[in-house]
Amino acid sequence: MAATPHPEPEHGGSVVRNRASLLQMLDDIDREGWDGPTGTTLLTYLRERVVRPLAISVGLRGAAASQAESTAWQALWVELTKPGLRHATSPWGVLGQVARRQLLGEIVAARFATNDRRAWKLEVASREGTVGPAISLDLLLEAGWEPVADETDPGNSTDDAGLETAARRALVLVGWNEQEASSILSAVLEAPGTRVDDRTRFPGWRAMASSVGIPAWQARRLTIALRGTSDWPGVLARIVAEGPQVIDSPVVRTALMATRRHSYRSPVLAARNVEEALADALPQRRVG
Predict the structure, then answer these.
(1) Contact 72, 51 (CB under 8 A)
(2) What does each C-alpha distance from 67 to 46, 52, 72, 162, 266 come to in angstroms?
(3) Percentage of residues of the chain with pLDDT beyond 70
(4) Among the four residues 31, 71, 158, 271, which has the most C-beta atoms within 10 Å?
(5) Structural domain spans, the chain
(6) Judging by beta carbons within 10 Å of its beta carbon (0-12, 13-18, 19+), is residue 184 exposed, middle or buried?
(7) Which top-rank group of organisms is this from (predicted)?
(8) What is the pTM of this model?
């Protein structure tokens, strides 16, 4: 039995950049599938007439341009499959923003030598002066930089007093008084580094609640916020890695605010929401 041929696409094999034409093409693709003539026409047009000119306009060339072009093209394909695009007032504008964001993401990722999501967070931090982009070691050596000698004591790189001072200041900034902040830090720093038993995921918070005289929920959140978890670095680790100025960052401030307000989500969830918001906000500002 012969297969029933697809009806002739109403767009005539060409792409017109208006809303009605794009919606008609998507309807045709629903019938034909992405391997059909309409899907091939639309995807080819997007790569050659949308993504490639944008890649050139943002300064990408050579292999970097090819890689970024593929990434942006894939992102557009995913965007085309989303039902929300068909309800957008300007779907071509949406596609242009998606492509531009992906291309800029490739540039930022190369700048910080990491994936694009992490790179956007670092870009935000670099604007605040807390981090800088990755620098070639060869360039540093050519400029006269010398690595630290092997015999240098790594323990001297982080001053314990400076760490405690910064952490205490971070607690005071969100509403803990000096005495409470000192007692909280002592409890956290003196707590066992590993679980006492299988029931204790965050050791030390019960002792803190008793010694400092605060509710259990606050002691638990303080322990999490300051020490962190297996997949989220806490405030103490961030101070060591990024310096004392990190206590003024929105992420640290939000994590510690969760120790003051019961209505807040956990420190980790609250901080991650801010990280995602920062990662989303910067590309939007650039695209806009």
Answers:
(1) yes
(2) 16, 11, 9, 44, 39
(3) 67
(4) 271
(5) 19-127, 160-287
(6) buried
(7) Bacteria
(8) 0.44
Q: In 3-state terms, what secondary structure has residue 1?
A: coil
Looking at residue 122, what is its pLDDT?
62
Q: Which residues have CB under 8 Å from 157's CB, separation 6+?
A: none
CA distances from 224 to 71, 139, 236, 258, 285 (A): 37, 40, 11, 10, 33
How would you classify residue 192: left for phi > 0, otherwise alpha for psi between -120 and 50, otherwise beta? beta
Closest CA to 229 of 255, 206, 207, 253: 255
SS (H, E, C) 47-91: HHHHHHHHHHHCCCCHHHHHHHHHHHHHHHHHHHCCHHHHHCCCH
pLDDT reading at 58 higher than 70: no
Tokens 């910080």 belong to: 112
Q: Report the chain's mean pLDDT, rounded to a whole number.
A: 76
User: Distance (Å, rounded) from C-alpha 238 to C-alpha 29?
Assistant: 49
Is 278 in contact with 121 (CB distance < 8 Å)?
Answer: yes
- Give the integer Cα–Cα distance in Å for 105 and 271: 22
Residue carrying the six token digits 């080819």: 44
Neighbouring residues of 76: CB distance < 8 A, sequence distance ≥ 6: 46, 50, 51, 95, 98, 99
| Pairwise CA distance, residues 200 & 284, whole Å | 42
Label residue 1 by pLDDT band (50, 70, 90): very low
